[in-house]
Structures are given as C-alpha cells and as structure tokens.
Design brief:
Helices cover 34% and strands 23% of the residues. The chain has 128 residues and is of the alpha+beta class. It has a single domain, classed as Ribosomal Protein S5, domain 2, CATH 3.30.230.
Length: 128
C-alpha cells in the first residue's frame, strides 16, 4: 500500500498530508475533519479537490496542520490534497489547475516596520 506525502501552505499555516487508498476517512490532527473544521464552508474547501476529480470516498487522508487560522489551515490542506492527487494521477493536474487548487497563495502579513504604527501606517501627525 503506497502512501503519498505532500505539503501545503497558506499564510502561516502548514499542512502535511498522508494519502493512501481507503474508504474516504479524513483525519485532521487526530480528529475527524468535520469536527476539526466546524463550518460547512471550511469542510467543503477540504473536499474540493476530491470532489472535482471524483475521488471522494476512495482515499484515507491523515493531516497534520499547524499555524495560522482556520481558513488558512483549510486552504493549506486543500493545496496538499491537490498536490497528492497530482502525484498519484498526473492527468488531473489540468483540471485542478483550472480551479486554482495547485497554485500556492503567496499572500502573507507584511512585517511591522520600525518608526511606524503598523507595516505601512504612520503615526498621526500633529502640527502643534
């Protein structure tokens, strides 16, 4: 039984995914993904690459995810699952790319600069 190991990132969230043939069980940080991601939107984000490639219920997926918030973690898991599916079957890559599931979202929080209130926001100017 072959296990595919891939990595997905989004903002500061990092997801390591282990995919193997099975009966569709998805475990995130030792909990069911429906328990870990409470909202339906986040659950559907995790399932998007599997539903698009008609592989829902065919793979057992174990996920270790760390950092970031809930949305960032869900999108990191989505990227990692999509990469694993491409590794198993390169023909699905064009379909996943068209939906944007292969592209790593590079947007991250800009660091705070010295002499500023935030990354770009200046302190309030006072003439008097």
């Amino acid at each position: 039984m072959e296990v595919i190991n891939t990595l997905g990132r989004r903002k500061t969230a990092v997801a390591r995914v282990y995919v193997q043939r099975g009966n569709g069980e998805i475990i995130v940080n030792k909990r069911d993904y429906k328990e870990y991601f409470p909202t339906g939107i986040l659950q559907s984000k995790v399932m998007q690459p599997l539903n698009l490639t008609n592989n829902a219920g065919q793979f057992d997926i174990k996920v270790n995810v760390d950092g970031g918030g809930m949305t960032g973690q869900a999108e990191a898991v989505r990227l990692a699952i999509a990469r694993a599916l491409v590794e198993m079957d390169p023909e699905v890559k064009s379909k996943l790319r068209a939906e944007g599931f292969i592209t790593r979202d590079p947007r991250m929080v800009e660091r705070k600069k010295f002499g500023r209130r935030k990354a770009r926001r200046r302190f309030q100017f006072s003439k008097r």
